[in-house]
Amino acid sequence: MVYYFVERMTEDDIEQVQVIERASFSTLWSASTYRHELRSPATSRYIVARASSTPPPPRTERSAPRRGLLASLLPMLSVRQTSVRDFPIVGYGGVWLSVDEGHITTIAVAPAYRGRGLGELLLNGLIDQALDLNADVLTLEVRVSNIVAQQLYLKYGFRPAGTRPRYYTDNGEDALIMWTDPIRSQAYQERLQQLREQLFARLREEANEPGPLRNNLRLGTE
Is-catalytic flag, 46? Predict the structure, then answer.
């Protein structure tokens, strides 16, 4: 039985995050780059997903409704930053704020845990972080060949809005640019709540499985 939850990334998490990064991407960030990002919380937010064989401790505080929807729908899967340090990190993601735009920089899941909804869980956590940063819309770049990731983003209201030719330096592949409609609108928030209820049901089912699925599914902004 495996439970998953998300929390804000700290500098102590960098080493574990870099292990997942090396298994997921060909272009890597240095530890100093991560430290710089984590020390700029007004414009940069990073989160991690952790795995536990037992239900994580319940939150002792509840966020405001605008920011705490994920926590309220996934009470067993979202905990306070300081409540757990011993559970392994199985995924991470980040978002930058530029004026009123939230730019999702990365989402990656450890190979042994792909295909279990963790990429979607991380995306939801980043949406909450973007709302907390007062972003009005979200944007990202994704490899034109990464259909799995594109399907996830389409599900959450991202729409294609052009390409960046030869954006990825490892092989010169183009990036598809995707944007959402305003994420604070009633229509988007209602759809988001429906999707989160579905995700919650899926993760509850996953918690009853004996261990991580091992397959080739990859989620990420690359």
Answer: no
